[in-house]
Amino acid sequence: MIRIKDVLKEQNGSYILEKLLKKDKAWLFLNDNLEVPKEYFEIKRKIDSGYPIEYIFNEVYFYGDKFYIKEGVLIPRDDTEVVVERAIQVISEKCKKKCKVIDCCTGSGVIAIEIAKHTNAKVLATDISELALEVARKNAKLHNADIEFKKCDLFDESVDLLVANPPYVENFWQKPNEYEPDEAFFGGDDGLDIVRKIIKEALKFEIKHLILEIGYNQKKPLSEFLDNFNCKYEFFKDLGGRIRGVEILFC
Ligand SMILES: C[S@@+](CC[C@H](N)C(=O)[O-])C[C@H]1O[C@@H](n2cnc3c(N)ncnc32)[C@H](O)[C@@H]1O
Predict the structure, then answer these.
(1) Phi and psi, residue 11, nearest 5°
(2) Could you report the per-residue pLDDT of 205-248, keeping only the tens digit for each?
(3) Domain coordinates of the chain in residue numbers?
(4) CATH tag, 60-250
(5) 172 Cα to the center of ligand 1, angstroms
(6) What is the pLDDT of residues 12-44, one digit of tens each?
(7) Counting atoms of ligand 1 from 1, which one is nearest the CA of 132?
(8) 154 CA closest ligand 1 atom index
């Protein structure tokens, strides 16, 4: 017989049991002689085969908050929190009156929702995926966040600030699993096709301020591209000291 105490030491063991039994950690420790339910082993097998645990329990934590997530929509990563922090800082410092912000490529809506929660900006959010928008709308409702969602190829209007975690991975890259969608990751041979398109479209719509998540190895090619425009730009790093994003200001 396998007891609770045997699986508490396993990776995600406590989390899975808390979810399955609808009990907290303290209860598990006080009752660690009980037999582990058989569903635990089915879930463990699924996770070990590469299925994301976030899709099993339909939840993910981002910026200290719990969000709904489901298969087919990108699971938000901690890496993106630095982008949210930068956006909140910029909006708080520079937007004295109510400003309009767009979260382009919103996915599950986490960036848009955190901006709406932590600033007084009017927030719009777009994605080309209907499934992503369905999840983002559900999350906005869960967090009581007032956000206008739109199915759209990038964006189609002018705002004071554009924030995005677009697909920026090189096409040859191996996805972490087969359950997250290709269109959330891939951005062409050097990964920057959609980033360049966002920058050009921003110019067209006279959006002067952008904050974009990028890959740690994209500083050089992106700098070369940005040097063609009349703009100032600054790369910013995550806590590990790796390039994680760029803030662009068109003159
Ligand atoms: C890297 S995910 C980011 C999701 C979310 N913002 C986050 O940080 O977790 C990129 C998202 O961009 C969307 N996307 C891809 N191409 C797009 C396009 N041309 N216009 C709008 N959204 C797009 C994908 O559907 C996906 O949800």
Answers:
(1) -60, 130
(2) 999 999 999 999 999 999 999 999 999 999 999 988 999 999 99
(3) 4-49, 60-250
(4) 3.40.50.150
(5) 18
(6) 999 999 999 999 999 999 999 999 999 999 999
(7) 27
(8) 20
CA distance 113 to 84: 10
Residue 203 tokens read as: 């110019």
Q: How far apart are CA 103 and CA 195, in angstroms?
A: 14
Distance CA 23, CA 15 (A): 10
Q: What is the DSSP letter of 235?
A: E
What tokens were used for 215? 């890959």
- 8 A C-beta contact, residue 248 and residue 199: yes
Give backbone dihedrals phi and psi of 161, rounded to 5 degrees, phi first: -145, 135
Pairing of strands 231-237, 243-250: antiparallel
Residues with CB under 6 A from ligand 1: 74, 76, 80, 105-108, 110-111, 126-129, 132, 153-154, 165-167, 183-184, 194
Which atom of ligand 1 has the smallest separation from the CA of 80? 8
